[in-house]
Each structure stands twice: as C-alpha cells, then as structure tokens.
C-alpha cells in the first residue's frame, strides 16, 4: 500500500498537481525519486544525450535585455560579497531565468569545453530536456535543492554536483534560479547554504531597487549586529505605514501574511514615530505582542512630498497649441502629398526580409483584408490602435508589417511584452531612470523603452497585464506627450505611434477594477479583432503561403493535396505560432522527402483526436494491429519503421511512453 501511495504522489508531482507546500515536506531522497519518475514520463533514458534547446543569439540578446536588472543586481551587488570564497573554489555560478535558460555564468570551471558541460548562455536546463538537475528540479519544486553526481538522471551530467535556489520577486513570483555547479569534491553543505543565501541576497536587492526611491524600508533581526545581513527580515512601508512588500524571511519569521497590514499591527509603533526616529539608531520593538526584535529604518532616497496636480483629473483638457508660422505655404502640402504617395499602395516599400508585406497578410479573407486597410490608414494619423486576438494569432507579425509600411519605418519599432517584465521593473523599463536613481541602477542610467520609440512605433503587447501604478504613469505620458525618467525632474517630449494588443476583454477588466477606464479610452482609438486561424476563410491559402516562406529559409518538401487537406481540418488552438511549429518539425523530419503524417509531431494528432476527426482507415488499422500482443507488435513495428517511435506509436495506437516501455522490456530480455 505504501508503494502504491508513493507512486500516486509521484504521478501527481509529474503533473504538477501537488502544491508547493506539500513538496517542502518531502525528504531530499523523495524529491530526487519524484524527479527521476518525471524524467521517465518524459521518455528519457539514463543514456540519453542532453537536449539544451539552445536559443538563437538574437533571442538570447532579447532575453538578457528583459532580465537586465536581475543580471546586474546579481553581478554588481551580490557576487562581490562572495568573491573571496568563490575564488578559492573550482566552481561555476549560473543564473537562469524561470524557463531554465542560462542568462550568464561566472567563474572558471574545470569541466572542460563549454560544449561538453552545457553551462553556457542560451542553453535550457529543464528536466524534460536534461533530466534531473539542480536548475530544472528547483524550477519544478520551487525550492532549493542539491543534486549529487549520481543523482543526475542522465549519465552525461554525473561529472558534477549542482546546488540551486530559486529567486522570487516582490510579488512572490519565481523569476529565476541561481546555481553553483562544480566537479570538485567541495564541502557540499557549505555550497548549498551559500547558494540559498545568495538567492536571498538577490531577492533583497530587488526589493530595494523597486521601492527604495519613495518608500520606507524596515530591516529587523533578533540581533542588533545582524541588521545589515541578508538573513534579516525586510518590510516596505508607504507613507501611511501600510506594508506594500516584504521579503520571504519576514514572512517566515513573523509567520503570517503581511500584505497590506499597517505597521502598528505588526510592531508596537506608529508610522509617525518611524518617520521621526533617527535613522542611524536601531530600536528595540515587540512584534505580534510577544517577540522582541531590533529594527533599523531606512528612509526613502527621495523626499516624499505630494504636490496637487489638477491635470491628473479625468476631465482635464490640454490647451490647443497654436499652429507654427510657415514661410512657404506650399511646403506642408508637398509633405502631405509625399506621405500619401508613400503609403497609399500597400506592399510597395522596401522592407526587411523578416517582415511580411501587408498585401500578403491576407489571402482571400474579407474580414482580414478590411482590418489591414483600416489599420494601414490609421498608421498615418494620431489615433492609437488596439488589437484583440488569441495568443499566437500573429499580432506582433501584423504590427511589424504596419510599422514598416508607414512613414515611421525609418525609426524604431519597440515591442514590449507587458506580461514578461517583472511588475517591479515595468516602470523603470518603460520610462527609464537617471544615473544612480536607485540601488541596482546602471551607472549611465537608462533612456527607457518609450523614449527609444520616439518618432517610431511603440507596441505594448498583453497590455492587460500592466500593473495599475504603471497604468497611471502611462496615461500621463499619453496625455502630455512627455516622459520623466525615475529619479529625474526633467521631462522629455516623445512622438510615438501607440499600438496595443491584448487577449483579454478589457471592458470586463475595467468593470472588475483591474484596468483603468481612462487609459482604456486613451488606447482604444481603432479597435480591431484579429481572427483566430481556425476562423479564417483563407486558411488553405495561408497554410500554403507560410509553407512556401519556410521553404525559402530552408529547402523542404512540397505539400501534397492530402496533407494540405489534413492541415486545413486541424483546429489550430495555438494559431499561427502552432502552425509554424508543426510545419518546421514536419519539414525537418521529412528531410526533403514527401511530407507524410508520421513526420508531424504527436500533439498535432492529439488536437485532431479531440475533434473526432482522426482518419478512419488509420483507426481501423490500429485496431487490427491490437490483435497482436504489444510485446511482439511494438518491437516488430520499431524494426519496420527503423526505430521511429512516433510512427510506431501511431500505427500501434498507443502512446510514445508505451513504445519506450516495451522497447526497454525487449532489451532487458535480450540481456
């Protein structure tokens, strides 16, 4: 019974149905066993080669830009504290994002070449691709873990020991993983403790970066000499004494949810006393009515002073600016004529190879043709565009095409995924900051994404994910057309074409209080709905067009009429993104031979199965094959298909895992 219970728990772990709290109660051995079980479910074997799914250089550069604050905080504010310890150890420090992609490494490994150990920028260390490993397993469990040499699932990784600890942001969202890996026989308990302390240090510095400008920060500990240590609890207070953020240590020490409590509900002190207390003098306070702590107050960097600004009211109307005097009255008309000539014909401009001409965004669907023409005309007017559409429907492709077919094409298109930037960094990323504006800021400051788009196009994707505080600042920028960087009093004028996109119903978000009504009406000039791939009437022509574009990038097989019919029948829940993925996989598997069903990925047929549109002949063939025992059928089909697991599983009517299972049994029997 115990074995059955453990198998059930492991199955739940592999599906991610157990909550993180239950994972914390597991022993180290149980975590490693659960990870090995997941690896088997992924179809991995101990002799499998690691699949790092290396990112292209351009994608890695974008990823590093997105995590610039996390990288700089780690390198400039945390690692120097441990430099003496780490310089005497043969180890490598690795920072990865929340998907397991390596962002940067520090240290000189003795592992050999980078190609051998795989700890290089852009490589992805997930359990699915690399088996049990410190980074991937920490991501799944959400807890710090150390993976010994023989605890790695893949033999290829058993040359090293990895110790990894997740990094959480101010909203308690996992944003990255810090890892120390080594092939040396170091005192591993020491290494494990150090990586946990380092990740906590990064979290604390992120809190300071996000809040030190305008908030009071309280550091507390049981010992007065430890107030500046990374193990101290941290509370962030607004001017009224409300706790707006806290580190994990504070939550653990005080053992309660601190969100939006007032400081007088935690410590025996009022906010007015904190404001007037000498900042260099620690004080002794009682927490929760019984625990004694030493507390240090860190005041805001900027003096908090609220000056009323009546322009923030929703009924404010900016004064009309007088038209400038022009010596030659014909000049504006000439400029207007040139602009019309430049943008009247769709698809005639010189555009980059990776941009689809506007005329080729539609292939017979009247609705798409109409919205393309509408958006193209609005691009030359001071009217924002709001695009609605499902994930993967091609919103960014559409925006890139609009930008490069407009008079703004010579300037930058700046695309911002509002959901991908940590909430506490959105403000500094969008509006920029002055040199030394906050702890962790670059020495040279940052111009910000909005100012980068000056005279160009600013594309705010997934704008419904934007935090409310940032919505207020964005509204002010759109009203006044100026940007004031963090830490600065200077306002910079901006001329941008704003295009926003969302897969949410923003009117519903406004009703629920998650999106500002005044901002909604600022961004929704022209509202267009980009249809899902399954809804398009030109689906066949669109599939044929995308296939031909992919063949220009890399030679591949032509589409037969039967294959095109199968692709048209598909529901495409992942839209254009899924279509491109399926075509790329199929063309790679076909290797210039005729594209057949078995070349396509398994999840393609899962979607068809859900529709009940699986080919009847294939189903009947699979049913007839079931008369033969699986232990005989699967080895025979594997031999017929020269080891192709996907085609074997499809013909036998079983999953890939079942194929792996019976193939493994055959090998064991032969031994």
From TrEMBL:
Pfam families listed in its UniProt record: AAA_lid_14, Sigma54_activat
Keywords: ATP-binding, Nucleotide-binding, Transcription, Transcription regulation
Entry keyword Transcription: yes
Domain Sigma-54 factor interaction stretches: 361-588
Source organism, top-level taxon: Bacteria
UniProt-annotated stretches for the region Disordered: 1-29
Keyword Transcription: yes
CDD domains linked: AAA
Designated name of the protein: Sigma-54-dependent Fis family transcriptional regulator
Protein species of origin: Marinomonas pontica
């Amino acid at each position: 019974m115990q074995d059955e219970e453990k198998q059930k728990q492991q199955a739940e772990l592999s599906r991610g149905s157990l909550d993180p709290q239950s994972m914390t109660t597991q022993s180290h051995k149980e975590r490693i066993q659960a990870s090995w079980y997941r690896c088997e479910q992924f179809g991995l074997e101990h002799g499998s080669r690691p699949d790092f799914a290396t990112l292209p250089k351009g994608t890695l550069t974008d990823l590093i830009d997105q995590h610039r604050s996390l990288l700089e905080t780690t390198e400039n504010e945390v690692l120097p504290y441990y430099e003496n310890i780490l310089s005497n150890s043969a180890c490598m420090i690795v920072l990865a994002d929340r998907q397991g992609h390596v962002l940067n490494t520090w240290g000189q490994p003795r592992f050999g070449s980078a190609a051998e150990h795989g700890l290089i920028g852009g490589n992805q260390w997930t359990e699915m691709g690399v088996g049990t490993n410190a980074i991937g397993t920490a991501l799944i469990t959400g807890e710090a873990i150390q993976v010994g040499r023989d605890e790695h699932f893949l033999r290829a990784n058993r040359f090293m020991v990895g110790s990894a600890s997740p990094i959480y942001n101010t909203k308690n969202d996992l944003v990255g993983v810090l890892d120390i890996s080594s092939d040396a026989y170091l005192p591993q308990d020491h290494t494990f403790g150090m990586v946990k302390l380092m990740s906590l240090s990064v979290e604390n510095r992120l809190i300071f970066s996000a809040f030190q400008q305008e908030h009071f920060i309280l550091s507390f500990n049981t010992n007065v000499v430890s107030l500046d240590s990374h193990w101290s609890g941290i509370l962030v207070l607004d001017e009224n004494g409300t706790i707006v953020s806290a580190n994990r240590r504070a939550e653990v020490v005080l053992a309660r949810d601190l969100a939006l409590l007032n400081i007088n509900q935690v410590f025996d002190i009022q906010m007015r006393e904190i404001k007037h207390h000498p900042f260099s003098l620690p004080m002794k306070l009682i927490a929760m009515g019984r625990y004694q702590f030493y507390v240090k107050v860190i005041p805001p960097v900027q003096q908090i002073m609220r000056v009323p600004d009546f322009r923030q009211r929703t009924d404010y109307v900016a004064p009309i600016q007088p038209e400038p005097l022009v010596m030659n009255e014909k000049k504006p008309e000439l400029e207007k004529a040139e602009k019309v000539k430049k943008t009247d014909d769709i698809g005639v401009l010189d555009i980059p190879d990776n941009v689809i001409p506007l005329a080729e965004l539609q292939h017979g669907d009247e609705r798409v043709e109409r919205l393309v023409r509408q958006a193209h005309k609005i691009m030359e007017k001071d009217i924002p565009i709001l695009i609605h559409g499902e994930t993967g429907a091609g919103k960014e492709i559409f925006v890139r095409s609009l930008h490069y077919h407009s008079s703004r094409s010579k300037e930058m298109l700046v695309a911002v995924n509002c959901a991908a930037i940590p909430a506490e960094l959105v403000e500094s990323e969008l509006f920029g900051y002055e040199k030394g504006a906050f702890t962790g800021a670059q020495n040279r400051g940052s111009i910000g994404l909005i100012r980068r788009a000056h005279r160009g196009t600013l594309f705010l994707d997934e704008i419904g994910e934007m935090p409310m505080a940032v919505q207020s600042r964005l509204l002010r920028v759109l009203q006044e057309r100026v940007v004031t960087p963090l830490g600065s009093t200077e306002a910079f004028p901006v001329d941008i074409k704003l295009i926003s996109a969302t897969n949410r119903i923003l009117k519903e978000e406004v009703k629920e209080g998650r999106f500002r009504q005044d901002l909604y009406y600022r961004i929704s000039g022209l509202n267009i709905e980009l249809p899902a791939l399954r809804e398009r009437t030109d689906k066949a022509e669109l599939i044929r067009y995308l296939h031909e574009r992919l063949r220009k990038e890399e030679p591949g097989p032509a589409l037969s009429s039967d294959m095109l019919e199968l692709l048209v029948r598909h529901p495409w829940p992942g839209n254009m993104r899924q279509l491109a993925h399926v075509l790329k996989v199929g063309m790679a598997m076909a290797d210039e031979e005729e594209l057949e069903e078995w070349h396509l990925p398994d999840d393609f047929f899962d979607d068809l199965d859900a529709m009940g549109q699986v080919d009847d002949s294939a189903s009947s063939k699979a049913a007839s094959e079931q008369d033969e025992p699986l232990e005989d059928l699967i080895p025979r089909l594997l031999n017929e298909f020269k080891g192709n697991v996907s085609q074997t599983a499809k013909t036998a009517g079983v999953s890939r895992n079942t194929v792996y299972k019976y193939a493994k049994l055959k090998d064991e029997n032969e031994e």
